[in-house]
User: Fold these one by one.
Assistant:
Number 1:
Amino acid sequence: QVQLVESGGGLVQAGGSLRLSCAASGRIFSSYAMGWFRQAPGEEREFVARVSRTGGATYYADSVKGRFTISRDNAKNTAYLQMNSLKPEDTAVYYCAAQYYSSSQYDYWGQGTQVTVSS
């Protein structure tokens, strides 16, 4: 079993930046692609970004392209989401997720961290 713990959320003004971290334990980190999702109150969970097992390929939702950057450090068993030029509509609980290389969906999820962007 993989345990994922997010950190780095908080309150920030519009136009500001935050860096979220996702610390993983329990299995070999490089066996998993990592993703970030978010969910606002009353809304469905939304895909934000994904990074491949080696970090060589990244994917982003259109709403965050050019503003957010996903990365990973396999030596530290940690994935990151750098969030720049934040907007009020980015306000949500952000979740880290891990997908095993042979799995068709994400297998493990973190507890979430709140990001609030004030106008």
Number 2:
Amino acid sequence: QVQLVESGGGLVQAGGSLRLSCAASGSIISINAMGWYRQAPGKQRELVATITSGGRTNYTAPVKGRFTISRDNAKNTVYLQMNSLRPEDTAVYYCYAEVRSLVYGGVFRASWGHGTQVTVSA
């Protein structure tokens, strides 16, 4: 089956940095877009950043210039480098990938990680 395994979350002081990683594994034929969402306490889940299989990126306005998304297609892994972290970045961060797999009938379907907590203290 397909699974996404996240790592790199934790507690950091304002102004610090963290790098999140997410590796997809299982019965994967190919992966299209990958990205990160986050959900802060009392708020809706929001998209943070996406990256296509060709490396084209997109960011939500609050993280532009501070976060960088990248991927290693050979490892089926997506990264989120987070710099200049702020308390408002505190959230559970979820990895996703558009995965083509035989378990989905050979078509692309969104797969999700279980989330990793990022906490930024003032």
